[in-house]
Amino acid sequence: MTEDIKVVADMTTNLLLKVAKNGNIFFMNNKAACIFRNIGGKANIYDCVAKTHAAVLRQNIDSALYLQHSHHFYWSFQSRYYLVYVYPEDFGVWLCMDDISEKRELAHLLHIGLQRLTFAERMVPFGYWELDMAAKRFYWSDEMYRIFEVINNNQFLRRNLIRECVYPDDLVIYKQKLKALLSGEQDVAGRIRLRTMGGKLKYCYFAAGIIYESGEARIAGIFQDITAFVDRQNIGKMNKSPDFAMHFCHDIRLLLQNMKIAVENDGRHADSGLTADNRVTAQIDRLTNMLDNFINRTQSGQGPTVVRKQNFDLGQVLADISLEYKRQASGREICLSCQNRHVWVNSDRFLIERLIHNLLSNALKYAKRFVKIGVNGSGFWIADDGVGIEKEKQKHIFDMFYRCNTLIDKHSYGTGIGLSSVKAVCQLIGAEVKVKSVFGKYTVFRICLP
What we know:
Layout: H1 3-11, E1 15-20, E2 25-28, H2 30-36, H3 51-67, E3 71-77, E4 80-88, E5 92-99, H4 101-123, E6 127-132, E7 137-140, H5 142-147, H6 161-165, H7 168-184, E8 188-195, E9 201-213, E10 216-225, H8 227-236, H9 242-264, H10 276-299, E11 310-313, H11 314-331, E12 335-339, E13 344-347, H12 349-366, E14 370-376, E15 379-384, H13 418-429, E16 432-438, E17 442-448
Parallel strand pairs: 12-14
Antiparallel strand pairs: 1-2, 1-5, 3-4, 4-5, 6-7, 6-10, 8-9, 9-10, 11-13, 14-15, 15-17, 16-17
Helix pairs in contact: 9-10, 11-12, 12-13
């Protein structure tokens, strides 16, 4: 071996040896000499190590010589770990041994850290993300994909899904936060709404900061799904929130509309069993009852959303309310029928009436020829033969201010509050609201009481 090759061999940080098939050492660089001469200066590598370690070496050397093909294996020696590359020659092999003890320990620590992060995400839960600004490439933890309901992780590595999914109104806030982060490099945080890839509305807490890797700045942050917390907070504080005021005003608006219709249609249908005065009086009584409930519950310190259960005949309530809407339906040449039977339930009658009024008014708005209402088990259902709801829109109809915009009469559009009010009341009384609809044919809402 020339002197130049020896100099180059000594420059490497790896252990470099040339070994015969029988284990005799022909050459070793200074790094290898420091290791193997310290154990007795033996000239045969198999004599330098324990029998189990020698067996691993012999197997890999014999394999390389037999196949005349280089390969690598992992080897433990003197409490150190090596990645050993075997290169065959005519009368032996070259062994290049890379000490990976520190790398192995670091990999173990990283694995433990990842396990802890995954556990923390599962317990909290929160998602972690990073943006490599130079490469414009994202890293997302598993929880981020779960929050955003992303199925195929790999296809979104270069897309900014956060900006794609955040509500437009909240996206302005989000961008302002990131701009402040990049200009001042101070951590930022906030709360935003997003529409997931699966179409769900979620409330999220986010925080972001700057981290550095190899001197390069990266944006890192967390997302936490707080939808359940926000829903509980909204239900518990509806009387103090703008949302409750909108729901309450929406209910009053329905009653005033019915009163107006009763007056406008008076005299057009002589076969009606009620005069306009009687119908207006009934609506005023209900409006007075609603205001009384609101005032009494607020003054008692309970707030208007406290559930006050009582036993009442759900079938009779349906019949009474459907009678109030008979004239409105007839004025639009819609047949409103109530399939009534007596079913006693224990719930908040005031809130149940709110559900019926909202759903029945909504059905009459969209119906073509008929609306049907009836009792089913411990709940009730309302069906119409209207324009129906497209399948992809059905998951959004209970969101605040969402409107399908499928009515032919554009002036009949609602405020987008009615069905969100239905959802809020159902959550309050522990009921479940279900919808079944075929676009262009019919829609059925079912309320299942606990």
